[in-house]
Amino acid sequence: MKSGTVVIELFDSKLLKGNPLGDPHVRRVPVYLPPSYRAGGRYPVLYMLTGFTGFGEMHLNKSAWSESLVDRLDRLIGTKKMRECIVVMPDCFTRYGGSQYLDSNATGRYESHLVMELVPHVDRSFRTLARPSARGIVGKSSGGYGAIVLGMRHPEIFGLVACHSGDMLFEYGYLPDFPKALNSFHQHGGSAATWIAWWEKQTQRLASANHAALNTIAMAACYSPNPRSKLGFDLPFDEKTGEMRPDVWKRWLAWDPVRMLPSCAANLKKARLVFLDCGSRDEFALHWGMRVFAGHARRLGVKCVVEEFNDGHMNIQYRYDRSLPLLASRAR
Questions:
Q1: Cα–Cα nearest to 59, from 323, 320, 330, 331
Q2: pLDDT digits over 34-78, tens only?
Q3: Is residue 220 domain-shared with residue 208, that is, in the same domain?
Q4: Measured between alpha carbons, how far is 225 from 94 in angstroms, rounded to an integer?
Q5: What is the residue range of 277's domain?
Q6: pTM here?
Q7: I want to staple 274 with a disulfide (CB 3.0 to 4.6 A). Which of 12, 134, 181, 304 is the partner?
């Protein structure tokens, strides 16, 4: 079975230079070229977004009982289950663990970096089919969120969208983390600022053990930036009492795909494919978000392929066996 080739692009981003968190503006972006790429021709291109605390090169990793993305692509293509495609793995990691693939004056211009810099660069550098109908975006968790939001906001760029277990219906997915985050803040000085100072001193940062605090800080930086605030963002609750701050929470909800859908449905209708899936035992209740989103989408005339499967949120890369061939088959 023939194998594809991975090229690591060192991309110097003008838009990420001088970002507020001091994160690198030169990013390593793996690009998978399919087995027959050297023979010539042009190919559909898929952008694979990682989840929270992820970045593009992590797709290349192997783990016990699981393939790397490259191995998966080679197998799917080699067994004729998937059409050959170019696959790009962006790096939108931040000091706080992720950007949600949005522009924020607390983190940087990651949405603009992806759609205004990286996509044109890939089209110039590789033999892509450089049109929305042959350009897809796919991701899981925060990557799924990025896929569906960028698909809704940029139909002129992405005409194929796949969202695996994406963040949506924020009151179910994020609210349960807030008291946990508050408890963690108060274990380390009593505020998000003292927690961040503690976190950054750790020689081994265990994101899974500190998920609620880290995720809450990262999401606040993405959804409720505030350059006048000491941290550069507003939290959706009072750090001393835990009382919700409705004005800040409203800013978060404005970025909820469920709330965005009415104003973006016309854009999403232009897509050749909108694929949504989620495990029916998702630990962050994202299957309920998917159900609500899908229901609203269908009532607004957006055609979606919606699937639930018997699993949770973690280690569900096997679901790419479903989405990737489907995306490739719809590319034109």
A1: 320
A2: 999 999 999 999 999 999 999 999 999 988 888 999 999 999 999
A3: yes
A4: 14
A5: 5-169+258-330
A6: 0.97
A7: 304
